Amino acid sequence: MGKISQAIDNGYTAVFREVLGSLLGAAESNFGQIFKNSFSAHRDEVTITTKAGYDMWGGVYGDQNGSRKYLIASVDQSLKRLGLDYVDIFYHHVPDPNTPIEETAVALDHIVKSGKALYVGISNYNSKQTTEIGKIFKELHTPFVVNQVPYSMLERWIEKDGLLDFAKQEGFGLVAFSPLGKGLLTDKYLKGIPADSRIGKGNPFLKPDVLTTELVDTLNALNNIALERGQTLAQMALSWVLKDSIVASVLIGASRPEQITENIATLEKPLSSEHIEKIESLLQKIAK
Ligand SMILES: NC(=O)c1ccc[n+]([C@@H]2O[C@H](COP(=O)([O-])OP(=O)(O)OC[C@H]3O[C@@H](n4cnc5c(N)ncnc54)[C@H](OP(=O)(O)O)[C@@H]3O)[C@@H](O)[C@H]2O)c1
């Protein structure tokens, strides 16, 4: 087995660090360089966020993902790479079963109170976990504002689990990641698997067997609705995620700049209730 697939199978262990060590934090370093060169005059016009929670450095503390030691070291390292004094939102990436939730909450609160972040976010917390940590944030008066979760026409656990309603009730926002189902909710897989797509390139997190006949038929039917609306399927999938105002933002991935241009144009065409109903009746057919 190759080192990268071995690392992925082991869940980001030491092998991953050995292979990709020099790349960990590279997104922040690249951003920091570009921001410094071209955008630093606009710092007060933008929201800059980062997160910590997965394996990042060697020794026993680099993967203690919710501990005070790990979180405070993480924000310090991130600020250095970003070249910033503070971030707008600092997220905890994933709940840590090995650290008491109070420790994680108090560490995030400390990060805000020490001026390294303006607000706190969490990510991949279900409604029960959000309730638990949210209670501590309330006691501490921590400015907790957002939970970043997967949400798309194809991945809707936040509806079933009650997180979507809980966010509305409590007034925190949701940021949807993988809103295009990692590329499935675009027009690229309607007639096969293009070689330059994630599946075509053998991405271990998106395998060809996901493309069942049932799914491909539904994607084609969704694509017809998108065309009727004068949109691409990617744009309609993003409009669908943004139909609920509790979704504060969508976090898209892109393999080329044109995809970003196409996706941003989504904002011009919100979904009508008639199209929401049509889409829902198609999605019900593939709901598990
Ligand atoms: N908080 C977390 O735990 C967590 C977990 C996962 C991801 N995230 C964040 O969420 C971001 C997005 O995740 P994702 O990349 O999985 O989600 P995604 O937005 O659902 O999928 C992105 C992929 O869709 C394809 N695509 C995008 N726009 C397209 C267009 N207009 N036309 C055709 N294809 C298009 C591209 O794939 P091709 O390569 O096939 O062109 C692109 O790489 C990540 O970058 C990451 O920052 C967060």
Helix-strand layout with pairing:
Layout: H1 3-9, H2 14-20, H3 26-39, E1 49-52, H4 68-82, E2 87-92, H5 101-113, E3 117-123, H6 127-140, E4 144-150, H7 157-160, H8 163-170, E5 173-177, H9 213-228, H10 233-241, E6 247-251, H11 257-264, H12 273-286
Parallel strand pairs: 1-2, 2-3, 3-4, 4-5, 5-6
Helix pairs in contact: 1-2, 3-4, 4-5, 5-6, 9-12
The chain binds NADP nicotinamide-adenine-dinucleotide phosphate.
Overall geometry comes to: globular
CATH class: Alpha Beta
Which residue ranges are poorly predicted, with pLDDT under 50 across at least 5 consecutive positions?
A: 1-5
Q: Tell me the series of helices and strands, N- to C-terminal.
A: HHHEHEHEHEHHEHHEHH
Structural class: alpha/beta
Second rung of CATH, namely the architecture: Alpha-Beta Barrel
Number of DSSP strand runs: 6
Mean pLDDT: 92
Q: Strand content of the residues, in percent? A: 5-15%
Q: What would you say this structure looks like, in words?
A:
It is built from twelve helices and six strands. With 288 residues, it is of the alpha/beta class. The chain has a single domain, classed as NADP-dependent oxidoreductase domain (TIM Barrel, Alpha-Beta Barrel). Helix 4 packs parallel to helix 5 and helix 5 packs across helix 6 (127-140). The longest helix has 16 residues, at 213-228. The protein is globular, with a radius of gyration of 20 Å. The protein starts with a helix and ends with a helix. Residues 93, 123-124, 148, 177-183, 186, 188, 197-198, 234, 251-255, 259, 262-263 line the site of NADP nicotinamide-adenine-dinucleotide phosphate (NAP).
